[in-house]
Design a protein that fits this description.
- The structure holds two protein chains of two kinds.
- In chain A, α8 packs antiparallel against α10 and α11 packs antiparallel against α12.
- In chain A, the strands form three sheets. In chain A, strands 2-5-1-6 form a four-stranded antiparallel beta sheet, sandwiched between helices.
- Chain A is of the alpha+beta class.
- Chain A has 25 helices and ten strands.
- Chain B is mainly beta.
- Chain B has a 13-stranded antiparallel beta sheet with strand order 6-5-4-3-2-1-13-12-11-10-9-8-7.
- In chain B, a hairpin with a 5-residue loop joins β10 and β11.
- Chain B starts with 12 loop residues before the first helix and ends with a helix.
- The chains are: A alpha+beta, B mainly beta.
- The interface between A and B is large, with 36 and 37 residues.
């Protein structure tokens, strides 16, 4: 370690240089903030070279954009003339919107029907019925049209969807503005709402910006109040506050500088710093006030230097473990999580160095403050309460330490069971609760119309050959069997339908046996219909075909189940025509894997790294192992609560554990450090525990409190996962604290590990 | 569902289109009345008999092409004092659709009759379609493109004269008189170049309902087919979609025949279709 005396003298001598340097760096980074770009496209959160993303681009290349927007109309009777006219108008208007590639609605759909002597390809809705009789005729007609019934039109005729496929150049905002205008221009009975991923993205963008604007002021105010309660002095409030703000400015400015973007999950970045970044400054100020005794004759510079000398080690120890925990987010393959690890760790490093350099530099140049009596007589009541609790804990440990340990492990075990019920959710829609308006179109799609999104399978080969066509047909029928699959679409279905009609017999609802007949059906179809009718299911050369299965459940579980079900089937058809599975649903399902993997790896790694750091710090492997205990119990509790309360593991909550480990380990370090010191003095574990708890114990409580207060602002977020994240941080940090204050003393009292006896250097 | 005369199958487009390939004898000058000029182009459809071989190439603008070869026969019949134009199309290539035939009777006063013979099915089926077909065989040519505009539906004006491949043309601008007419065809404006010599359409440009350039038709090779009656044909017609890059072309692959051995009454029966 560096000589702290030299270092502190250096800092104080060149105080102005350091002050100017830190201010300059902050100003520089603040100028970068305006360049930040928001990005909420879920697929961009995965690296471009992942198989699922490659599959998606390949599919988009063959069959056009997969992104969809929709207008859903829900009313008593869609077939009522005014409603139909409105739907037709909106369908036509949507087709006119720039970058809307193709519109699918009851007015663009076709119907292949048997005619007396042959086949008719007609519009699903030829004319708008003006009276009851023709309305019922149309209804009877539509019921037989499987391209429409239960798909674009609900079976009770109460809901219909107008779907627009976007090309890859489409800009979300422009498309949604156009859709909103279409809906506003066409008022009518019932409800009309817009939906689709672009809407979710725009909505996330707006709410995210609003969230950040809300968090920061509220968080900062809470922090000021907390700092004032702690220090009751202007500089005690201002300096840690300034340090935190500077750290936030630094990391937010770092985002565009590194060429990164602000993702949905990045909203919690400033909050992490708000909660964690002031810890080091608080220690510095506390020490300053401790040393600045009434009547003392130390100069401002001496007090500042003293602070650096005494706090460099603990601040570095806790700062480095926190950074290590955060950097473990790098094990995530999900881009925003990785970046969050680096950004948050950089912010912590900035705050940590700033607290050891910038704050003492300022303190050394400020006139000496009026001494504040550290013993908070004013808050005697609460002090007494806290002390009584801490004292009670110490007594309990003295009497039945083993019971305490057993109790903790039982609680952890019970809670841990909950982790089996953890649900993973990667659907960006779940940032909103299911009751929010943004979910409405999805509910209607799932309950009444085919399903909200689809799994796509691409077949490669001579699509017109009966062998390939029969395999496509078999796949589609297999997919149809899955309970979560709603509507399915493929070229095979069309071929079967044409065969049945042209052969004039129901038993010919099968794929024909010759390539010629299939080719001739296609030719026949092209004589009477739109060449683009098949764009989404077969390519121009008849070399690729797409089978789509819509799912009726927007959970990531459903996505995973259907993707796994599909892949298992394709696996069995080795050598068959099916080359890739893809689509939005596939990306969602894939993300679940990565969230879980990232979670497990980062958690494991952060625990191991933090424990190694503790082992190095205490020069004992046993110390490392002991420090794992509070973390393990907090983790078990965290996942248990998530499982039992049904809080989903998602992109946001997946980051929780690394943050918890990085921050939570601090309390263990503080406890062990002080306990060793006390134990060596009195050589009695119970006495040492008592002293430690009533001195450092208090510090640990305040430290945890400041973190909790920082994260509490997340509870006002517009997004439920962020609110849950706030709740879980509070729970898990409290768990870490309780473990450090209750379990750890019991463990050292029972096992009397040798590293605590070694003579301190 | 009821269909009407205006919403016929895309196949109907071919004879109309063929009409364009045949020039009227340029005997008298129709003056500078754009309506008259278009009428002249319309009457060019009335050809007694014809047999032609052509290829249809559809290029999707992404380097992929579809080629088809078709033999087309047409003949005018008088049935019950009314004129019926009968047409027979036989696909000769690619092999998987070889022998597919379409027989269509185009009545002046009632719905068309149409039969399709699919050799792989070995059955003739009557087909109907109520969709106002936008495209012919998935090509860029549409029914509306290939019929000359109903003169009464449009405001017409001759904007200028211009030479196409050395052929002096009237440039006629046609705008629909109502939005409904425009929406049906999908155009807000068409500009047509008609040869002053042969009355052949040498070029057309089409604007979509938003007023943006949609498609451009270019023609090449005016060929004198029938010396006696001074009838012409175009060797090539190319329709390019300016918005999506797709391109379709019709090419004559052999001289047009009007001989009885190539076209006679027996060709226009379903039993002939099934013999293919």
């Amino acid at each position: 370690m560096m000589d702290h005396n030299k270092f502190s003298a250096f800092v104080v001598r060149y105080a102005w240089v350091f002050i100017v340097l830190f201010v300059a760096v902050t100003v520089f980074f603040s100028l970068q903030i305006k360049n930040i770009e928001l990005d909420n496209d879920m697929k961009n959160q995965l690296p471009e070279d992942l198989p699922t993303r490659l599959n998606l681009s390949k599919i988009e290349e063959l069959f056009g954009g997969t992104d969809m927007v929709m207008i859903v109309v829900s009313t008593d009777d869609i077939l009522e003339p005014n409603t139909l006219k409105r739907v037709e108008k909106m369908s036509n208007e949507m087709a006119e919107v720039a970058n809307v590639d193709r519109v699918v609605s009851i007015f663009t759909a076709k119907n292949i029907v048997a005619d007396i002597e042959g086949m008719t390809v007609e519009k699903a809705i030829g004319a708008i019925p003006e009276d009851r009789k023709s309305r019922d005729e149309l209804a009877a007609h539509l019921e037989k049209n499987e391209l429409v019934y239960g798909n674009l039109l609900s079976k009770d005729f109460k809901h219909t969807g107008i779907i627009g496929f976007l090309n890859t150049e489409a800009k979300d905002e422009a498309v949604i503005d156009a859709l909103d205008r279409i809906v506003a221009d066409n008022p009518g009975s019932g409800e009309t709402f817009v939906g689709g991923m672009p809407i979710v993205r725009v909505s996330l963008n707006k709410d995210m910006k609003r969230d950040v604007r809300k968090f920061l002021p509220v968080g900062l105010v809470l922090m000021v109040i907390f700092l004032f309660v702690c220090f009751r002095q202007a500089r005690g409030v201002l300096l840690p506050f300034l340090m935190t703000v500077m750290a936030i400015v630094f990391v937010v400015g770092l985002i565009p500088l590194l060429g990164w973007k602000f993702y949905t999950v990045t909203v919690i970045l400033p909050v992490i710093l708000l909660a964690v970044g002031n810890n080091y400054g608080i220690h510095l100020m506390a020490r300053y006030q401790e040393d600045n005794v009434p009547g003392g004759n130390a100069s401002a510079r001496e007090i500042a230097e003293n602070g650096i000398v005494h706090l460099t080690n603990p601040v570095l120890a806790t700062g480095v473990t926190t950074m290590a925990g955060l950097l473990c987010l790098l094990t995530h393959i999900i881009i925003p999580a990785k970046q969050m690890g680096i950004l948050a760790a950089s912010g912590v490093a900035f705050a940590m160095v700033g607290s050891l350099v910038f704050i003492p530099a300022i303190l050394s140049r400020l006139p000496k403050a009026k001494p504040v009596l550290r013993a908070r007589e004013e808050v005697k009541e609460s002090k007494a309460l806290l002390d009584r609790i801490l004292y009670g804990i110490a007594n309990l440990i003295g009497q039945r330490p083993k019971t305490v340990i057993v109790a903790f492990f039982l609680v952890a075990l019970t809670a841990g069971l909950g982790s089996f019920f953890i649900v993973v959710d990667t659907n960006p829609l779940s940032f909103y609760t299911q009751e929010q308006p943004i979910w409405k179109s999805t509910h209607v799609l799932n309950n009444n119309l085919g399903g909200w999104a689809s799994v796509a399978v691409v077949a490669e080969g001579d699509i017109k050959s009966p062998e390939v066509m029969k395999q496509i047909d078999a796949l589609e029928k297999h997919l149809q069997k899955h309970p979560k699959v709603g509507n399915t679409t493929s070229i095979a279905k069309v071929v079967r339908k044409m065969n049945e009609i042209m052969q004039g017999d129901k038993k010919f609802d099968v794929i024909p046996d010759t390539k010629e007949l299939i080719a001739q059906y296609f030719l026949l179809y092209s004589m009477s219909a739109d060449p683009e009718d098949f764009n989404k299911i077969v390519d121009f050369d008849y070399k690729h075909a797409q089978v789509m299965a819509q799912i009726k459940d927007s959970s990531s579980q459903a996505a995973q189940e259907v993707v796994a079900y599909t892949q298992a089937y394709i696996e069995k058809q080795k050598g068959g025509p099916f080359k890739r599975v893809g689509g939005l649903v596939d990306v969602l399902a894939n993300m679940v894997d990565y969230v879980v993997k990232g979670q497990v790896y980062s958690l494991f790694l952060s625990v191991v790294i933090c424990c190694i750091l503790v082992a190095i710090l205490m020069r004992s492997v046993v110390a490392g192992i002991i420090s794992m205990m509070p973390l393990s119990i907090a983790i078990a509790l965290l996942f248990g609560i998530m499982g039992f309360l049904g809080i989903e593991l998602n992109l946001i909550t997946a980051m929780l554990s690394s943050i918890m480990v990085g921050v939570g380990i601090d309390y263990t370090i503080h406890f062990l450090w002080r306990y060793r010191f006390e134990y060596q003095k009195v050589n009695d574990p119970i006495e040492a525990v008592k002293t430690t708890l009533t001195t450092t114990g208090r510090g640990i409580v305040f430290n945890a409190l400041s973190v909790v207060i920082g994260f509490v602002v997340l509870m006002i977020s517009a997004f439920s996962p962020v609110r849950f994240f706030g709740l879980l941080v509070v729970v898990s940090i409290t768990a870490c604290m309780v473990c450090a204050l209750v379990l750890l003393p019991a463990v050292v009292a029972v096992f009397k590990p040798r590293f605590l006896e070694a003579k301190q250097e | 569902m009821k269909q009407n005369k205006a919403t016929q199958n895309g196949l109907m487009a071919v004879p109309v289109f063929l009409g364009f390939l045949i020039a009227l004898p340029s005997v008298s000058v129709a003056g500078e009345d754009p309506g008259k000029i278009l009428e002249k182009a319309t009457t060019a459809r009335e050809l007694d008999v014809s047999f032609s071989k052509m290829s249809l190439t559809i290029d999707n603008g992404k380097g992929q092409k579809r080629n088809r070869k078709i033999e087309v026969r047409t003949k005018m019949f008088a049935e019950g004092g009314k004129t019926v134009e009968k047409k027979l199309y036989i696909f000769t290539d690619p092999p998987d659709v070889k022998g597919t035939g379409v027989l269509a009777f185009d009545y002046a006063d009632k719905e068309d009759d149409m039969w399709v013979y699919l050799p792989a099915l070995r059955k003739t089926r009557r087909i109907v379609s109520s969709s106002k077909s936008k495209a012919f065989m998935g090509s860029e040519f549409s029914y509306a493109d290939m019929s000359s505009p109903k003169i009464g539906d449009y405001n017409l004006k001759i904007t200028k004269s211009e030479k196409i491949d050395g052929d002096d043309c009237w440039v006629i601008e046609a705008t629909p008189k109502s939005k409904k007419i425009g929406d049906e065809e999908g155009y807000s404006k068409k500009v047509i170049w008609i040869s002053k010599k042969s009355y052949m359409i040498r070029k057309s440009v089409f604007y979509d309902v938003k007023g943006d350039l949609l498609k451009e038709l270019t023609t090449k090779g005016v060929v004198l087919v029938d010396k006696k009656n001074k009838r012409f044909r175009l060797k090539e017609m190319v329709m390019e979609n300016k918005q999506n890059g797709r391109k379709s072309s019709f090419n004559l692959t052999a001289p047009v025949s009007m001989e009885a051995k190539d076209v006679n009454d027996s060709h226009f029966t379903t039993s002939y279709l099934e013999k293919q």
